[in-house]
Amino acid sequence: MTSKEIIKFKNITKKFKGNIALSSLSFNINKGELVALIGPSGSGKTTLLNLLSKIQTANTGDIFIENTNIKDYKSNKLYAKKVGMIRQQFDLIDELTVINNVLAGRLNEWNILKSLLSLIIPQEKKLAVNALKRVGIEEKLFAKTSTLSGGQQQRVALARLLVQNPNIILADEPVSSLDPTRAEDVLSLLISLAKENNKTLITSIHSIKYAKKYFDRVIGLRNGELFFDLPVNELNEGLLTELYSLKKVNNNE
Ligand SMILES: Nc1ncnc2c1ncn2[C@@H]1O[C@H](COP(=O)(O)OP(=O)(O)OP(=O)(O)O)[C@@H](O)[C@H]1O
Fold it and tell me: Quick check: ipTM above 0.90?
């Protein structure tokens, strides 16, 4: 790994009951890159992100983060400083107030007592206030999360990520549930937060328009394989048509 590389996938294969989700995938990502992950439904985008965030483990191959095999990160606390993920359903707890959800970004760093106490008296309130200010909804600090709109909830998820402050941000279709205007607001906010803080960002995204507008590099996955990996300005219609074409492929070997 060179000093610029922050993520390395080496021959990663992931199968689900014989169905191959990712097939001998290898690529590297440099620190600070903004990478869009595109490809048809079922091409392996979520699986790739889940492996990186350690929600799932690969059948074969190795993933390195900052030169260390992810199998060797034994502490969740340390890993939470390396990798954070925003998922399609935001993973917020509806019944809690916004401040509690935002401060959940600190849970890995708190002991059990402080974590439990935080449900009654939010700890480190200033941290939450600053994060909510940055995403533009500080007035919602004590609102019940379920009363917020989808776009506001996504901002809460971003604020939680700011509090967690990982080096690598993963986002799985972060704006798919929002209307086009909110989607673009939230996406451009995510990109600015990543750029301002020199984070590495990998986002799966269905919108080619947004991939082209906001990202540096595009990885196209098809049937769990790397179909292309290009600087965004080298993406062309021919490649995109081929990526999304419905060629019948037998995945069950
Ligand atoms: N938990 C699971 N159990 C069984 N098969 C799975 C599981 N998760 C994913 N798969 C299969 O792995 C393949 C890749 O799925 P994945 O969710 O990674 O695709 P995706 O590109 O994220 O799709 P989408 O764009 O629809 O979210 C698919 O064939 C899917 O059916």
Answer: yes
